[in-house]
Amino acid sequence: MSDLQAISYPDAISLTPSDTTTFAKPYAGFMVTVAGNVTITTLRGRKTLIPALIIGAIYNFPFLQLWATGTTATGIVGVMGAPYIGPG
What we know:
Blueprint: E1 5-8, E2 11-14, E3 29-31, E4 36-42, E5 47-53, E6 63-67, E7 77-80, E8 84-87
Antiparallel strand pairs: 1-8, 2-7, 3-7, 4-5, 4-6
């Protein structure tokens, strides 16, 4: 029997980084299709650079803004809603 857990989200959308747009509702996390860095504003209002992201991994950092400045990764997809956590 395995203790592995799978996590999935009910929705996802392609995002464009912006230094001026703050989202009305937070995203639960994100993934990238081209490796690089991502700069976000966390739910506590902290601007944070997350370095050296890899392709296809979901990063579970809830955020309210995706900054253009400091973001070098592209093909960013935001995931939304409460995650489903179940058997892997």
